[in-house]
Amino acid sequence: MTQIFACSFEVFGQVQGVFFRKYTEKQANELGVRGWCMNTPNGTVRGELEAPLAPLNEMKDWLQNKGSPHSKINNAVFSPTKEIENYSFNKFTIIR
After folding, report:
1. Residue 39 and residue 25 in contact, taking contact as beta carbons nearer than 8 Å
2. What is the rounded distance in angstroms from the CA atom of residue 95 to the CA atom of residue 39?
3. Is residue 63 part of a domain?
4. Mind telling me the catalytic residues?
5. pTM above threshold 0.70
6. Handedness of CA 45, 47, 53, 54 (dihedral sign)
7. Domain count, the chain
8. Catalysed reaction(s) (predicted)?
9. Neighbours of 65 (CB within 10 A)
């Protein structure tokens, strides 16, 4: 059985109004990462990720270093990665 890992994240910078959530959902779906993301009132994007370790780390790298084409990422903060027994989410979604 494949091990599944989870972490939460918050991305700071110019990440609202630049299709950051849409590109995050696209990237997560390409990697098979489940979870969610949403805009916050203070201009950041927060969310949760669940996946096997390799795609989870690839998604974290994307959130920290790439993002959407017009985003400017200043910082990305992740909770410690922890192993979980089962997925909590069926897919990756944008919370509006």
Report:
1. no
2. 8
3. yes
4. 21, 39
5. yes
6. negative
7. 1
8. an acyl phosphate + H2O = a carboxylate + phosphate + H(+)
9. 9
Task: Please tell me the distance from the alpha carbon of residue 45 to that of residue 35, in angstroms, as a whole number.
Answer: 13
Which value, to the nearest 10 degrees, does the dihedral of the CA atoms of residues 31, 33, 37, 42 take? -70
For the chain, give the longest Cα–Cα distance.
40
Q: Which positions ≥6 away from 54 have C-beta within 8 Å?
A: none
pLDDT tens for 35-71 read: 999 999 999 999 999 999 999 999 999 999 999 999 9
CATH of the domain at 22: 3.30.70.100
Query: Which amino acid is it at 63?
Result: L
Encode 60-93 in three state secondary structure.
HHHHHHCCCCCCEEEEEEECCCEEECCCCCCCEE
